[in-house]
Design the sequence.
């Protein structure tokens, strides 16, 4: 099995079904946890030196940050529903509690933080929706916490790739800090499939092929991208959703396409 693939497990006492930490990933910035709660159940947390973006992938919750309460965050029934997720930004050292109002699938996205940012609910209207590509390279992007919104290092985005389409394509990378040309960002992909018995594939590879893995993806898996290009393919019959968390020394998403496949960008 690929060392880049992280499988979900049975819920623990806190409702966690999957966790990636900087320590487990062998990197510095990105942390990612999936929590599943039934109505009335709560999940609590506090990151002293890290900022957090709580994303209601499906379902709704009341979220308290310190003394501030954000009521009925989220509400869509599925990540494949054409609606914004609920999302709340939590600055470092702030304690929070998430109480499910419905069956809840919660993503806890973390990265190094800094003082000067306030707790806030991210409005639906602020999560811009884009259509990228054309033909079988078409996919639908929603920017949850992009680089032009307040945060220290976190970048969060979700993508729906229709069945039979490619995504994160042409293959691109963001693993080298080169001013104005590319930024160095670690990344996690949290994958969901519709119908859930489906599968997809993600390749993660570098120019010199010192990293070159084709990763089988099933519903609920995370793929870690420490470096390299990382295209994704969804087979016929199965729509693919993924939630991306990125972070690095500079909070900008500047990528470089694989030169061998750059021609595809010119014609799509």
Sequence:
């Amino acid at each position: 099995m690929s060392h880049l693939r992280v499988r979900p497990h049975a819920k623990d006492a806190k409702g966690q079904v999957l966790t990636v930490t900087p320590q487990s990933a062998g990197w510095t910035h990105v942390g990612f946890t999936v929590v599943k709660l039934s109505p009335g159940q709560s999940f609590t947390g506090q990151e002293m030196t890290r900022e957090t973006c709580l994303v209601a992938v499906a379902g709704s919750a009341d979220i308290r940050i310190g003394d501030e309460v954000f009521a009925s965050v989220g509400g869509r029934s599925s990540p494949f529903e054409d609606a914004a997720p609920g999302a709340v930004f939590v600055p470092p050292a702030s304690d929070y509690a998430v109480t499910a109002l419905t069956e809840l699938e919660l993503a806890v996205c973390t990265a190094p933080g800094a003082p000067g940012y306030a707790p806030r609910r991210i409005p639906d209207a602020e999560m811009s929706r884009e259509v990228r590509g054309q033909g079988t390279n078409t996919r639908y992007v929603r920017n949850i916490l992009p680089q032009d919104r307040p945060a220290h290092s976190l970048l969060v985005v979700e993508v729906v790739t229709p069945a039979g389409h490619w995504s994160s394509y042409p293959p691109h990378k963001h693993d080298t800090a080169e001013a104005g040309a590319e930024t160095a960002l670690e990344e996690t992909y949290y994958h969901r499939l519709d119908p859930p018995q489906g599968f997809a594939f993600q390749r993660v590879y570098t120019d010199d092929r010192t990293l070159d893995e084709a990763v089988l993806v099933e519903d609920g898996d995370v793929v870690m991208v420490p470096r390299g290009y990382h295209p994704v393919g969804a087979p016929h019959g199965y729509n693919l959703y993924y939630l991306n968390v990125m972070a690095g020394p500079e909070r900008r998403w500047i990528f470089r396409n694989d030169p061998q496949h750059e021609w595809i960008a010119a014609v799509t």
Observations:
- The first strand starts at residue 5 and ends at 6.
